[in-house]
Amino acid sequence: MEVVWVYTVISSFLIFLSLSFLSKRFRNLPPSPVPALPIIGHLRLLKPPLHRTFYSLSQKYGPVISLQFGSRLVVVVSSPSAVEECFTKNDVILANRPRFVIGKYFGYNHTNMVGSPYGDHWRNLRRLGSVEIFSASRLNMFLSVRKDEIRRLLLKLAQNTRHDFAKVELQSRLSELSLNIIMRMVAGKRYFGEEDDNDEARQFRGLIKQVFKHSGLANLGDFLPLLRWIDYGSFEKSLTKIFTKFDAFLEGLLEEHRRNKNSNTMIDHLLSLQESQPEYYTDQIIKGIIVVMLTAGTDTSSVTLEWALSLLLNHPEVLEKARAELDAQVGTDRLIEEHDLSNLPCLHNIISETLRLYPAAPLLVPHESSDDCKIGGYNIPRGTILLVSAWAVHRDPNVWDDPTSFKPERFEGLQVEPSKLIPFGMGRRSCPGSGLAQRVVGLALGSLIQCFDWQRIGGEEIDMAEGTGMSMPKAKPLEAMCKARHVVNRIV
Ligand code: HEM
Fold first, then answer.
1. Which residues take part in binding heme (predicted)?
2. What is the pLDDT of residue 18?
3. Measuring CA to CA, which residue among 205, 218, 216 is closest to residue 245?
């Protein structure tokens, strides 16, 4: 009896394997590792960091691969030619987003800019964003906020480092810098800093920590409907809890700005649009925009800064070159300004090389096909989730010489084809905040190089391992020794 049972199990398994293999051949899907297990498919292969797992798979199966994540078909592309195909020929078809559980809550039921399906509503949001948030005039309007926040960071670092080198922790400082910049643009509020330590700030800090934690978690229920149905791990229950609190906090901010109409923040501009078009600019749309600014626009910039400084600490000769450029172009009598950035090619190349090696979104943001299409000659059925590995493209030896080395000078006089360097994505769904990010990262990194001497602690190399989280963080938060230079006195 037992023999019959074992025989039945093994033969069912083999039949399942050959059927899934034949159906893939028949449907001409991209190559896929075998076996995909019943129900879970390839989920068992997923080990963090995911971009490294997909990179190893692409080395074995090619630049376009298909994987079965539970009930969802996922295609991962890893070469510039496949990227080009995705975001030129198939750009409209691939401009949708999958509806993950997180988007039901923090995406306000998939209505915000990141999670909204491709269509009129998304187009309106992008148009609104390009006028109200990301236009040159809006960015210029908030220049004083960026300068002031960077100045406060420099002063903080200078506190114990005026006379000698002292150890500083940078991860939390950089994260606070980008959160303060965005919240001052959005609501005119600083929530990080000893002088701003009140109940509201404490509440915001607690909430945003939870929001980031939940946004960075992979949720198996997105791929295995049964787990979503039983709310495996109480994922949705805890999302509901934190979302309800965060939503109430944001609603409180809107109420406060309705009462005091004399400030000049993003909330005020959006509320005045609400007065003229209340049916479109609902509170939900405005809160959705704030959540996007916080989740897409803060950690991405601060981790980029942290990776850039880490790379410079491991390559002091490049740091010296950037410093010499700053001293020559800006001098030591004044601080670097945003308008200097266009005259600082070495600094610019350091940022490009950092974004190449450590893109904050190594797999971009997941896309979904709204119709059947073809990538690399393979069939991509409608409803497929598309992951684009910027990380693999940026380390492709067919595109980049010595791809794993930090060589900012590789960008000197180089015109890079759009599909070969995609830290901000490509096509219609690419990042609308890249201009703001370039300004924040450029001015902050330039100021840190201009104002301080930097050294590694005990001469040991900075550990460059990636951790897990929403935007590719460093596994080990960056700590370094720094000593203020004379130019710091200009800001006291
Ligand atoms: C170094 C900093 C940043 C990096 C590396 C980055 C990268 C990206 C990437 C890779 C995408 C997805 C593109 C795709 O789906 O194909 C994206 C989308 C987006 N980013 Fe950024 N980003 C950064 C900063 C910002 C900032 C500062 C903001 C706003 C304050 C922002 C707002 C957004 C929004 C709203 C989207 C969604 C666009 C859409 O779906 O239509 N990002 N970003």
1. 431
2. 46
3. 205
Q: For residue 423, how far is its CA from the centre of ligand 1 (angstroms)?
A: 9
Question: 46 phi and psi, to 5 degrees?
Answer: -75, 105
Which residue range(s) make up the domain with 323? Answer: 1-14+47-491
| CA–CA separation, 175 and 153 (whole Å) | 11
In the chain, how many domains are there?
1
Taking alpha carbons only, the member of 393, 313, 387, 317 closest to residue 357 is 393
Residue 432 within a domain: yes
Does residue 288's CB lie within 6 angstroms of at least one atom of ligand 1?
no
Determine, yes or no, domain membership for 37. no
pLDDT of residue 1 exceeding 70, the answer is: no
Q: What is the per-residue pLDDT across 430-480, written as a single tens digit (0 to 9) for each?
A: 999 999 999 999 999 999 999 999 999 998 999 999 998 889 999 999 999
d(CA 176, CA 191): 8
Tokens 């960077």, located at residue: 150
Residue 24, pLDDT > 60, answer no
- Reported as a single tens digit per residue, the pLDDT across 197-235 is 899 999 999 999 999 988 877 899 999 999 999 999 999
ipTM of predicted assembly, 2 dp: 0.99
Q: Which helix (H) or strand (E) is 348 found in, with range? A: helix 345-357
Does 107 contact ligand 1 (Cβ within 6 A)? no
The per-residue pLDDT for range 136-195, each reduced to its tens digit, is: 999 999 999 999 999 999 999 999 899 999 999 999 999 999 999 999 999 999 999 877
CA-nearest residue for atom 19, ligand 1, is 431
Mutation pick for ligand 1 pocket among 300, 304, 350, 472 (CB with most ligand atoms within 8 Å): 300
SS (H, E, C) 397-418: CCCCCCCCCCCHHHHCCCCCCH
Question: How far apart are the CA of 85 and the centre of ligand 1, in A?
Answer: 21
Q: What CATH number has the domain bearing residue 298?
A: 1.10.630.10
**Within-domain flag for 200:** yes
Residue 398 belongs to some domain of the structure: yes
Residues forming the annotated binding site?
431
Would residue 376 be called left, alpha or beta, if left means φ above 0 and alpha means ψ between -120 and 50 degrees?
Answer: left
Task: Please tell me if the CB atom of residue 295 comes closer than 6 angstroms to any atom of ligand 1.
Answer: no
